[in-house]
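pasting for the record
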Amino acid sequence: MQSSITNTPTRYGWAMIILHWLIGIIFIGQFVLGVVMVRIESQRMSFELIQLHKSFGFLLLGLIILRIAWRLGNATPPLPASVGTLERKTAPLAHFALYAFQIALPLSGWALVSVSTLEIPTMPFNQFVMPNLPLTDSDAAEGFWSAAHWYLAYAGIALVALHIVAALRHHFLLRDSVLKRIITPSSDGE
């Protein structure tokens, strides 16, 4: 049986699996990088890490938009019959919240660099200059977007941690297929 790029009624296809894990790794990596880059004493190293953080932020934004488009265009496998009513109602809300945070975080970071009075250009992976959002530069706006980005990051990583705990609960305690279907792709014959 050949694996499918698209989803089937029971499992996710390669496209969703790759996007899921790639976005997850980048999201967690961005959180770690964000914590480290503001604590480094070397201004040069801090500057380089901030540029890398901005680059991965734009990559994350593009990937999450692609993932949402792919999800809207493909059937999502339903939860196993063993999943209770409360979890069936909250799971879509949790996924929506994950998507919302994964969009809001890069956008808040983009807003932050756009309003910065330092006016340092953003060059994703040193390839091109990313234009700023049409926002007014000011210290007050920079303070607002900095705080928004920080709070969104910590709330987002807490939500990701909850998502991981829920997936591990399904795999090790409930022993259902919830985690397996985002690890092993669907097959054409399914």
